[in-house]
TrEMBL record, chain A:
The modification Phosphohistidine is found at H44. The keyword Magnesium does not apply. This is histidine kinase. Keywords: Kinase, Phosphoprotein, Transferase, Two-component regulatory system. Residues 1-101 form the HPt domain. Residues 372-617 form the Histidine kinase domain. InterPro entries: Bact_Chemotaxis_CheA (IPR051315), CheA-like_dim (IPR004105), CheA-like_homodim_sf (IPR037006), CheW-like_dom_sf (IPR036061), CheW-lke_dom (IPR002545), HATPase_C_sf (IPR036890), HATPase_dom (IPR003594), His_kinase_dom (IPR005467). Its EC number is 2.7.13.3. It catalyses: ATP + protein L-histidine = ADP + protein N-phospho-L-histidine.
TrEMBL record, chain B:
This is Uncharacterized protein. It comes from the Bacteria.
UniProtKB/TrEMBL annotation, chain C:
It comes from Paractinoplanes durhamensis. This is Response regulator. InterPro entries: Bact_response_regulator, CheY-like_superfamily, Sig_transdc_resp-reg_receiver. Keywords: Phosphoprotein. The lineage of its organism: Bacteria, Bacillati, Actinomycetota, Actinomycetes, Micromonosporales. The modification 4-aspartylphosphate is found at D56. Residues 7-123 form the Response regulatory domain. Pfam families: Response_reg. The keyword Plastid does not apply. PANTHER family: CHEMOTAXIS TWO-COMPONENT RESPONSE REGULATOR, STRESS RESPONSE REGULATOR PROTEIN 1.
Amino acid sequence: MNALLAQFLAEAADLLTQIDEGLLELERTPGDPELINDVFRAAHTLKGSSGLFDFPELTRLTHAAEDLLDAVRAGELPLDSGMTDDVLAAFDLIRGWLAHVTGSESLPPSAAADAAVLITRLRTPIGGEAAPEPTTVEPGRVPAWLAYVDEEWLAATAAWLRTTSSQMRFVRYVPDSGCFFRGEDPLHLIRQVPALAHLDVIEPIEWPADHDEYACLIGFVFAARAGAGEIGYLFRYVGDQIEVADLDGDAIQRYLSGETGEALKVAAPASGDDPDLVTEARAVLAAALHALTTNPTGSAHLISVANAITNAAHVLGDPVEIREPDVVTLTATVTRLLGDTPPPEEPEGPGSVDDGGQVGSRILKVDQAKVDHLMELAGELNVAKNSLPFLARAAEEEFGSRDLAQRIRDQHAGLHRIAEDLRAAVMDIRMLPLSVAFARLPRMIRDLGRRLGKDVELVVTGDDTMADKDVIEALADPLMHLVRNSLDHGVEPPGERRAAGKPATARITLDAIADGDAVLVDFADDGRGVDPARVRRTAYDKGLIGAVESRSLSDADALDLIFRPGFSTAEEISDLSGRGVGMDAVRAGVEKLGGTVTLRSEPGGGTSIRLRLPLSMAVTQVMVVSVGGQRFGIPVDLVAESVRVPAGEIGRVLHQDVVVLRGEVIPVVDLARVLEMPCRPDAAADRAIVIAGVAGQRVGLLVEQFHREVDVLLKPMEGLLAYADEFSGTALLGDGLVLLVLNLKEVLGLAARVG
Amino acid sequence: MPLELGDTSATLTGVVTVDEVEPFAAWLRGTAKPRVNLRKCNHLHTGAFQAMMRFRPKISAAPADSFLAGLVLPLLEGSSGAPIRQESDPS
Amino acid sequence: MTETQPKVLVVDDAATVRAYHSTLLTEAGFRVVQAANGLEAVETALTTPFDLFVVDVNMPKMNGYTFVETLRSDTVGTPAPVVMISTEDRPGDADRAYAAGANLYLVKPVPPERLVRIARLLTADRVAAR
């Protein structure tokens, strides 16, 4: 993909987010002029950038939305929710197209048809299909296409225009090649231009050999004394195909005598009142100042700086003459010029001139893949560093050099610190605010609310809390399930709410807070809450629990049932959340991140759900154990302790090995058996048992030997092992061996099946 | 019938529409020294005009229509429609 | 083509960007010559005088900084204005550009009308001198 397109896609994604957020914000504070302006600007920028590429539907659709927003901005009509829906739909469509563009660098084939529907809807409130704006050449500039006009006629016309002090309107009309198919006849249009004075044709430089008669390959330049309005009206459906320039006799004369229109423009006096040009002039001066700080010595360089300053000074209406350019003189001149002229009114946007980086913070946009790669390298450095203790032991045991071993250990300590700092620094780059994960929710709540006829207000706090981007990304889906579930089942319709003495508008709160190595996300609604009795009944009806359990379960445990796969409290499955995924998907998603989900509810008073997530999941600490001669990793955060017990202390209760630890009976799982590893334990030796906490339950894992704890970079399982659920991933150890890291939950499930 | 195609000469009558473009262009392409009579032509579809720009037939009779006679005919009779002052395509 | 039109050398390895900048400048009335990297650009600049250089930063064979340094060195020794346009804004890039001899360092995307305005502004003295 070319860089320009990649740039556009990145820019477009940002703009679409701005538009979405702005529109939703506008629904809360309707008519806020600043918000409308922001949304309009974003749409405008998107349209402008899209014009660089051959995505006509994209440009047209954005243009239609921009026109509607412009009318709102001008106060011509208020933005109602129907219009908001249409604008949102337009940008949703565009978002989909951009995904297609990312893959194929083209719009999907359906783009034209899809765009047409929305364009009509967007244009309706502002009086139907508006004229595409004809391009008007800035006054005084002679367009290059004047070259197509017969020179003799131009000369005669210039003389006559000068005598009468009048202007002639020149129009370049380049119909698009498919115009005949749409029933357009450009010559017929031109025929209708009032007071048409001259016509010239733009022929292709070379006629294609197999020229299709129905492709329009020519264009026209004509001159007329018609009014701008008349031409605008006549060409209202093809306004984007014409460019208009109003020229007087002097301009044409200067053109004929060889001066370019461009030179005229710059040489024009009082150009200081063109704000854009003033901005550029100041940018050039700032750049000159920056260049001067590098202490240029070459004469070519100094002269170029002097020339740039002279040109800028001219634009600022404060001409300077620099005779002998040297750093001191030039610096003084620039400083004076910058000080004398007022700065441009609007702050410069992105892509503006670098003025030395003194203003504001500098933000670097980096491709995510690069940061991921850096993270990987930092992780590998960490792992490589872990090989030093092995080396130290080898130095001591195999080569008998205690000294060398100590020195290696010292090196390891130093390297360890640097690697840790590096890891922390990279992690910090990867940190994103939770607002990223929350970004889609306002929109979703609004859309769902409208579909379900429920009024919902979202209150977000703590969305500036940071977490690793992997966590943020993985959090998006669980949050969406929560929202769906809440709107479907929790939030009551306004009537029911009023009857219950609640405000008609429901409130969903989303609160994020950092808690040590974890981040807590509290999601709460003030809906009808979850009724434990009803949950018990449903779970029993669905065969999730037996009759005894249904009676013995505490309310809190009953509520937890809604996280079981196959549970859904809604009698009918709605098209919104009843897609076979429910709260079980939330729990699965969060647990996959190494987090937990808990639910509290007050019947009639609402539901609150707490997600607890690790701040980062890039590097995992694992405890290495060996089983049947092979090493495996167990995530350290699951390990409560490791104990050695005499073989005789392992008892057996109901076909289950158990060990009694400080009065607690803990079931013991023989990892060798579960993993089908060969194992011939020495009957007399002590047993090594890792006590782990899995799903709120303590369990002992019988292993052959404990090893140390290491930091590893967990990689997902690939290839043949991809379906081996008992492993959560692989990691490279310092000594080059690949470590399989156990997914304890699956391992225990497997153990139960193995029996 | 707006289009009468002979061995070497064609006569265009009334309004020449997009329907006449294809046969007219094919005739121009296949005729060695084509001549076109525009006297009774009231309008020339852009496609037909484009075909004439490309194959440059001799105009045997000028159109009576003022727009065609005053503004279009000079282009059809001009030696070349190439830009006068510039080599590159300024579009 | 008239000799009074300012002449620009557009140096960029990305063909699309090069074509895009060239089209913009041609439409604005500049005569445009293109080069795909610094080395090619030096060869062109040695044989033809230019009124303006629009230069990308990251290019194969010879990057933009080296090219601009060569322009300002005695090898070429031209005081013509140089606009450097970078795709990525890394810290220090602007310093390098200005030290090499650029007159303006911009970061993409540069709006088309802005590029044209800047090109006109920087070449105004050269056009007026004709």
